[in-house]
Every structure is written in structure tokens, then in C-alpha cells.
Design a protein that fits this description.
The protein is mostly beta strands and 129 residues long. Helix content is 9%, strand content 53%. It contains one helix and ten strands.
């Protein structure tokens, strides 16, 4: 999860987190504590999805973690309740960690996504009452 880099003039190697570290931290930090796993499936072998329901800041939320293990691609997240509003979007990948993106609009229970290569996209929705 971390690798050592020798800094010039430093007494020893400095530790630097790798992408794997940031992906684990992203997943852990954006999944509500004591959340319940929800059924979720992907139709593409290079796109993995997990979903959780829990509470965050006294609000019920549903969290979708979408891991794209290959090149950039378009995807659709479907099966969302009709009254779900735009989804909060946070991405970690190659040169970015915990990058807050523009909210993802939802229409007709679906959201169109642009998945960056080798990245983890987390979408957070307020759970409808």
C-alpha cells in the first residue's frame, strides 16, 4: 500500500502512499459506519460495483462504489428510485484522490456516468423517505 522513496539528504527513505492505499482509504471513508450491504451487479467484467445503505450526518444515504479496472468508458447506473435527486460524486484514480466532481443528474431512475480509467467512483444519494 505504500512504497519507499529515498529523499536526497534525508536520513532514510520516506514513505509514499500508492494508488492502492488511496483506493482503500476512499472506499473506507465514503462507506457509512455500520452500513448494510445492498445487492448490486455489473454487466461488464471490468466494472465492479458495491452498494451500501446507512446513515451519514443524521441522514439516510445509499452509497454506490463503482470500480473501473480498465480504460475509460461510459456506464449507466439504473434501478434508482424515481425521486432520487442528483448524486454526489467523488473519484479516486491515477493522479487524483477524493476529487469532488459535479453532481450526477438522475432521470427516470438512471444516471449516465463517465468512468475514468482505473478509478473508483463513489456516488452518494439521500435515501428517499
Amino acid at each position: 500500500l505504500v512504497h519507499e522513496e529515498k529523499k536526497e539528504g534525508a536520513p532514510g527513505p520516506a514513505l509514499a502512499p500508492t494508488l492502492r492505499f488511496w483506493l482503500v482509504k476512499h472506499f473506507y471513508n465514503l462507506t457509512p459506519l455500520n452500513a448494510s450491504a445492498l445487492p448490486a451487479a455489473s454487466s461488464h467484467a471490468n466494472v465492479l460495483i458495491t452498494a451500501f445503505s446507512g446513515r451519514e450526518s443524521d441522514q439516510a444515504v445509499t452509497v454506490f462504489h463503482i470500480l473501473n479496472t480498465a480504460g475509460a468508458r461510459k456506464a449507466t447506473l439504473s434501478g434508482l428510485p424515481e425521486n432520487v435527486k442528483p448524486l454526489r460524486a467523488v473519484r479516486t484514480g491515477g493522479q487524483e484522490s477524493f476529487r469532488e466532481l459535479a453532481p450526477v443528474p438522475v432521470s427516470g431512475g438512471s444516471a449516465l456516468l463517465d468512468l475514468a480509467p482505473r478509478s473508483l467512483l463513489t456516488l452518494v444519494a439521500a435515501t428517499p423517505p
